[in-house]
Amino acid sequence: MRRVYMDANATTPLLPEVFEAMRPYWTEHFGNASSIHLDGQQARTALDRARETMAEFFNCHEAEVVFNSGGTEGDNTAIFGLLRPGDHFITTAIEHSAVLQAAERVAHRGVEVTYVAPLPSGLIDPAAVQAAIRPQTRLISVMLANNETGVLQPVEEIGKIAKASGVFFHIDAVQGAGKVPFDVRRFGCHMASISAHKVHGPKGTGAMFVRRGTPVESLIVGGSHERRQRAGTENVPGIVGLAKAIELAMHSLEDGTIEQVAALRDRLEAGLLAIPGTGLNGSQTEMMGGPGPSLLGTWEGSKSPNPVLRVANTTNIYFDQLEGEALVIALDLKGVAVSGGSACHSGATEPSHVLMAMGLDKTRARASLRFSLLKTATQADVDQVLKIVPEAVQHLRALSPVAAGTLG
Amino acid sequence: MTEPTTIAVAMSGGVDSSTVAAMLAQTGDAVVGLTLQLWDQTRLAGKHGIPDAPKAGRCCSLDDVYDARRVAEHLGIPYYVVNQQARFERDVVQPFVDEYLAGRTPIPCSLCNNHLKFDQLLQTARSIGASRIATGHYAVNEFDPARSRWILKRPADRAKDQTYFLFGLTQEQLSRTLFPLGRLTKPEVREIARSHGLALAEKPDSQEICFIPGGDYKQFLTAYLEEQGRQIPETAGELVASDGHVLGHHDGISSFTVGQRKGLGVSSPTPLYVLQIDPASHRVTVGADEELATRALRAGRLNWISIPELTAPMRVQIKIRHRHEPAWATLEPAGAGEVSATFDEPQRAVTPGQSAVFYEGDEVVGGGWIV
After folding, report:
1. C-alpha distance from B62 to closest chain A C-alpha (Å)
2. Each residue of B278-297: pLDDT tens digit?
3. What is the pTM of this model?
4. Reported ipTM
5. At the top level of CATH, which class does the domain B234-287 belong to?
6. Strand partners, B368
7. Do the chains contact at A323 and B69, CB–CB below 8 Å?
8. Which member of A338, A354, B79, B313 lies 3.0 to 4.6 Å from B33 by CB, making a disulfide possible if both were Cys?
């Protein structure tokens, strides 16, 4: 069976170039980058080169790049490393659990937490962030792009608010990195976290931008690696893979690849929305009161409906009168990998907290599926999905006359 | 879309359902493993003396899901966990709680079988292209062309007989269900598990109600109601003898079950047992062992399996508890969707809320809920 993978926001495969770049660092150049000898120096050179690439990506100094184990560690570091009892922390209701669970923990330790709710489109209104600021506010953490809906958040506006208020700003850029141009200076953030495996790099490796002078305490202590900001022998093959993946991602933003992905996503979305009883989660426009997102400089806030910007590869669609969980399984057995909601500890599906925060009721949230395309997605992939999904939806609806809304 | 040969196996992570998966995977049919996630074992952890960390071997615990997944991986079959927590709470836990509060002794496993394990599982199975399900229950079902009905029968291993919990299965459900263990004994099942290299072949059987770790109903009720922002309703009342004279007072009817002897809080030269619980007056009647015995039984919310319906008196054997030896009785229609039964010999502790299952030889005639 030809399988189509449309769950890129969960993880992506290594690109062959990434795999090749990493290869020598498992066996041949295995040195510890902290060692004095030649073997160590070879590893150190690889790290320095990777750091240079990452600095270019973030638009920061090389000294502001900290390699770590991935997005969760970055998010945790920003929150645990900066917040102390008595502080106030602003984040949003649509963050990844790496942020939300960390927020819950610091809340138990005397930190006040405000969760800004999104607009129905899935967008965080900068004015709502502004309104949440208090004298004790020490940190704002907002994601660049939402993993469920792909909606790009107005980080540049929020960066300005943070600067004007003297508050630290962290961007969880795990889902946006490599999909839109990234610039920590322009976004005005003090910290940003990314993960390699979301951009066709290896799992277990990530990086964090930490602006010089940001008093963030390291999460992991030990040796004086990463300028004492992250202890533990550097994962040299992983870091080399991350840098290669990021280099390729930056290239993809300029060579037309990302536009191709967007075109495929748009075609997929149009085809899926042609199925009766479906709709897009996160409308494509939003009425905004305050200044709107100007992430890509495409529009400024006004009182008229504005386009809500999304990353190129993601669409989130509800299919009324069926259960998303059953559809995910049925599609998997037909060779199509997609995701619905978030996995709970057992592996069963819970309705997405993101969609619920956007105001969807539980039934519709449970009837929603996320399709996220790899950058290597093809026309044939979309064709196959558009053949299989409508059949599966029709089949499921025919079997479950249970009206939507019977279960809370 | 529908592939008639696909079978969905309900996998709990125990020996029985794992062995079913192994047996079916061998036959060449397409097999998909499904685990129903019914209850979050950590949900009430730490409340009212419920342990912080759930013990192993409970349905829906992470360990059981892990075990089921490992079996599926070992067999090379697709495996999914299906979230049915909302339905389980609505169709099983809440009725259990309400019954208990009303002074009856509910039996959640039958509710779960009717609403979740068969109804919902079949639905899920069909959604994913499987027209039949298989479970690890010890029971036999077969189609009888003469009567043109699906018949449910007691299994080869009488000690493991689970037909008491399966009386609610409809003809449609029986026609789509496989019980591959029905003609095997438990030792044979363990042997098959071993022969398939299943690491959990020696895993002990689970006995308790899956969502009540430790089996302390009262503790569960208190913790659950507290979580729901409710309290155990005030049902304190009189403890009376069967002749009506007041022996003492009790703190609430949910502490009692018919036939209970311990914890009555009154002293007596002869052992006293709970005879009757009146949810309206909160009166709990106690008396001697022999007073527990009764020849009459009434049951409602009926389901018939070997017959279309009961139209005339019928000689059957009736089981009124899981561990009860079926007793001879005459069953008669009693109107309003109910039946009445008269036992040949008085039976001890006929308990409202439990089910009564009617047998004719090995066949399950049908069953209902004792009223």
Report:
1. 6
2. 888 889 999 888 888 889 99
3. 0.85
4. 0.81
5. mainly beta
6. B356
7. no
8. B79
